[in-house]
Amino acid sequence: MRVSATVFNQNYTDWDRYEAEERGESVAARPLKSDREVFNEEINLARIADETGFDALWTIEHHFTPYTMVTNPLQYLTYIAGITQRIDLGTMVTVLPWHNPVRVAEDVNMLDAFLGPGREIICGVGRGLGRREYAGLGIDQAEARERFDESLQVLRQLLATGVCHFDGKHYQIKNLRLRPQPDRDLSANLWCAGGTDETVEIIAKYNVRPLVIPTASLGLSLETARKYARLHREAGYAPSRTKLALWTYVADSEAAARRGAERYMVEYADSALRHYELRGSHLGDIKGYESYGAMQKALKADPTPFLRGFFDTHPWGTPQQTIKRATELAEAFGTEEIMFIFKYGGMPIDCAEKSMRLFAKEVLPALQALNPQPIDVRVAA
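The chain above was modelled as a monomer; its predicted structure follows.
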């Protein structure tokens, strides 16, 4: 099994200032810890991943809040390509409704050309959830599903052949050909996150493989992965393994790991609640996001299960405890690659680096030796 690392670039301690500014209150113009400082610190996590045997370095796309501050993951990874030697690179995710899919295909193709033989660019895509992001980018969130559907078809064509013919509502493309010309079919490098039934139906239909990012709960994510396995099988395709994102914190003792995991995983969950406004009421009224309405009602009443969810279910502890829990999850999700998040919330960079290096030394080899099988469709039914 492949084992990878993920860089988020969160500025968690700026949330109070950010939200006060958003309310129109008088606040300092800049965070106590600058965004540039966060970026400069976390670049070193990519170097550690490259040096210590991780298979890939992933990053994510978000806009406008302290939640995560990588606004263009393919641009970010192009820089990472230049400071690393051997690791593959992946997006977790590029949010398709926020982009022209032709430009996404061009960026993936160009980065693939830079990487050359022996290194891969894995293009994870998704639909996006944040109200602030859709508004700030001038995209009607009610159009997200249809934009995503069309963009996925365009992107898949271009990654497969370098050529696209498409006639849709949002995109009309005639005989478009990528340059520089791709030298191979990259469609197998296309993966998709799906947090709703609608998205799962789309990606299963088009035989795009599942990228599991459990921003809600691992239980709900497993239900979604099983649903994908069933729909994918019904569409006539062979079983597919998943790629799975997990949060971790590793220390020499369980007590030390508990202190770090509990504090920073709860902070991460708090940042997700705030970024996605999950204690609000707006998502149930947006076309294609109705299923999130019930979640918002539940979280408004009691956010505790969400705030505790990462700490209660993700792999943390001593190296052996981390191996045990990660193995359980890899088997349950039928996983071919786990992308671990080492720095999140307000975690200091030295804590993240220490955890990551211990993980690389004692956890990484054991997990790379695993070979989980795809989800059994009999279980998924």
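The first strand starts at residue 2 and ends at 7.
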